[in-house]
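User: Can you help me understand a structure? I only have the sequence.
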Amino acid sequence: MKSFLSLFAVLSLPAPTVSEFRRFDGPINAASNYIHFSEGYIVTPGYIDISNLVFASADEGTPNTYVPEDRDWNDDHSAVMEESRGDDRVANDDTYDRQLEEEIGDDTESAIVSGSTYVDIVLFHEPSECANTRLGCDWTELGVGANDGLGNLRWCCSDDAKGLGLCKGGAKQEGRLIVDPDKFNGQHRFLGVPPSGTWSRAVKFGMFDLKEKDGSGKYVMVVANCNDDIGRNLTVTGEYVWKSAHGYLPGNLFGEMYFYFAVAICYLVLLLWYVIKFQIYRDAAIPIFQWFIATIFIGFFEAFFKCGDLWVWNVDGVRFWFSLYTGVLFGVCKRAISRVLVVMLCLGWGVTCDTLGGKFKTLVMLGLVYAGVSAARDVMTIISITENEILTHNEEEEILDVVSILTFVTAFIDVTFYLWIFDALNQTMQYLESMNQSRKLKRYLRLRLFLLLSVLFAVLWSVFGIVDSYNSQRMVNEEENGWVLTAVWEVNYFVVLMGLSCLWAPEAGAKEYAYVMELSTLGNDLEFDTNVVDSPDDDSDEEEESSFSIIVHE
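Assistant: Let's start by predicting it. Here is the structure, written out as tokens:
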């Protein structure tokens, strides 16, 4: 049940809000059993810049006599030298290498005091061959961390890892992130942390340049403070930047921006067409037309604000909270009002009756409850997105959190709506069939066709999503085109709304349509009384005197 709720939440919630000007404010404690990481999709050429992150000591530390084994620091900084060296900067490579060593500060052997420990920062690319699988990439196969093939996974070269034979780098790797030079094909930075005293430092060469040859795709940045024997607890504050070739928008969301732009245009065209027809037949308008206008209007503004949110994100690098939350709330309102609208249609409002009586209040209240619960779920999901995560080598058990509970409540209300829709539709069609109202019945047959095709498509797409999620190799590359999974639901919704708008388009005589009774040819003499036969939604057994129009069916 828990996994079903999690899958339902993934399929129904908006895309995660990972800003490309990212904040990292928090502790990085000295621990060998977990690492911090941040991930994102980059379209190369691009870069990741952590120069503005400030690492600082959280305490005064304790002097010690531990001296790590000498390392070939130039091996760690060879990547820095290669990507920082340029023809326009230094003509003589040997001179530049010496200058670079003098400028690195914390990051050279000469600048590291006795007893220093280290913070390792690595950036690597996850190949699409493994990033698009159900289990994801095994980082140890990419050179980060190590395992013994028996389920023992370690990120850091601790005493425990040494006992398992996972520290192949020897003594110089002790208290450090395990990086296999034979497998690792990324970039590496580190900071030396003195054993005592107040300390604060930024990564001087914090620019990770990503060239086109590095390839577009998912990149992961890992930060590790591994030495839990004599290492110091640290804090990190500041912003860091992820930028692709087209701008700050994550590369896998660029297509989504154009999609919502196209959807907004479609809604605008539909809205203009419906409003023009409404104005032409204004004297014959009925309340259901206003509900259609409101639904289309809200759908347009949802697409407009979502497109605007992504556009601002791409230009400025941060999400404009007003556009973000306005788009989410418009989406919630659209889903709520559309459910209420379909129930109204199935109850026969404007076709078999001109009012819904007490059912109208019940229906509106159910829609408001749905909107409230759905809005709380969506907003909490956005707020709970974590940009800088902690990964331990112990698998943590998932818990049923508040979002899952709200998802369950939303699903329950959805089921209530669906049952009400098809029950009301069935009753209305039976009534029209018993009264030989073939023209009205034809409209409801088309309504049922639209709804059944929509439900069939939703079921097939849900099954496809479930099967795809359990495939070892996904059919839809979620890292690159994950937005398509939610975009399909938007297309399904718009097609249904467009079909219903055509069925209930404003027309002459719409106000009297509920009272039109279609009669078959009975001969030259017709006799009838003016007692209106009760519609399926009338609660009173008493007949009311009223006049109505007659259509003779030849």
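Now, to help you interpret it: The first helix runs from residue 2 to 12. The chain has 13 helices and 17 strands. Let me know which part you'd like to focus on.
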